[in-house]
Amino acid sequence: MRCLALIPIESDVLLSFYKKLFSNEPFPLMGAIIERIFIKEDVENEGIFFTILTDFEEAVRQSARLNLINKCFGDLDTNMATLCCDTIEQSFFMNEKLENFAAFFGPALEALYKQGRPPLQKIVSIAFLKEFVRRFWDTSREWRHSEVQSADFLTKELTGINLSNSFKTIATNILSNKQPLLQIVNPEINNTDLFIKSVISHIFAFHALVEPNSSQLAMYLHNIQNCQNMFILTCMSDVVSMVLNAIPEVKTRYSCKCGYIYIVAECGNVVQAGKCPNCGSTIGGTTYNKPETGNTRLDAGPVHQIAVNDQSGYIGETVNQDLYHSVRSLTPTSYRMLHLIIHVLIGASAPQPALAFLQKNNKVALDSEKYCMDHIQNDWDVLKKLLNCSDANLALAFHSLISLMMEKPLPNQQINTSAERTNWETMFHNNYIAPLTKNINETATNYRMKLDEALTKNKKERLE
């Protein structure tokens, strides 16, 4: 630390030192050294990290050292890039007034969305947006005048930025505190709702910042109108065919005049009559191979397997409180966790396209946001019972799940067939849910320890 103060700022020795330092993985207590380096840069060129956001070429013209540091970041997925990002956030953005952030919001977003932007500019942009999001989350209470002004300014700025309309709509709703899934209206909100909203915000933040077509889940948030003809995750299958195919013997399907389907075993010809459990009419027939009037034979002959007639698009459903309800090969726990994530993403997308999406096959949903929130809260309650855990541990398990999804994403695949849907759901269970729910309390404890370690590390680095 003292050596840094002794080396002249324009010295080639300092450049060599920076190159060696930033090209390698960080070592213990390195955060304090990096903080000192960045503070020295800011002293030499006041506001240099804000300049990086708005005019990177001007920033590196002012500082050859920052230009060299930028070239050291070939890959942003490193511990060094993470450490620099956290240091910049804490040293230069954490104590800045919220209203001063407004002018830099647009450039920071563009740095992340536009191709070919310099690595250091991306790191500074992420640091800025992390602090920006934290501030706006803290202001979900009644806003002060300056915060309302900032939100209004940022909303206007969004209109001029080259981003997707869906992203602009989502961001505008959050800025105006009108996103129902995240909005806190009652100051006496209970802990359960706070835990749920923390999970919703994590799910939303992750998928909002990834490319719209980078994953099936991201499409539900960004391009929901393009998912109408896909096979939607966790939606029910053709249950009738699944049940009939579970019967090993051959069978022949008949239909009552009311539409109720029944089967005849063995040769497939009727030999006795019965009452339709749906309408009470006579089904079958007492004369061999002569069904009662109004009954229709659906299969020409006995069959072993019946073609599955799964529907594409979303299939509306009422809230189901059955602990063991699931679809296909998903376990009840996997089903509920994925079902909750999907309804967060649908509920956070634009209301009109979301409602059209939810109503494709039936009109169970009348308000997309309320419909999704009802399912989210129900899934949460069922999961607590399935896993026998508290709100806090369930929230930690979800945060651990989302972190794992970020670290190890599933292969990008659009689900255009029922078989592809089943395959995706199976991968989701095997890669994420199975390992995380093997011991839910251990998963929660491990994630809590990671949070504590990160907090302790940040505190130490700020004190050094």
Automatic annotation (TrEMBL):
GO BP terms in the entry: immune system process
Keywords on record: Cytoplasm, Immunity, Metal-binding, Zinc, Zinc-finger
InterPro entries: RNF213 (IPR031248), ZF_RZ_dom (IPR046439)
Main location: cytoplasm
Keyword Lipid biosynthesis recorded: no
GO CC annotations, alphabetized: cytoplasm
Location in the cell: Cytoplasm
Annotated Pfam families: ZnF_RZ-type
Positions of the RZ-type domain: 235-314
GO function term, MF aspect, one: zinc ion binding
Protein name, entry field: RZ-type domain-containing protein
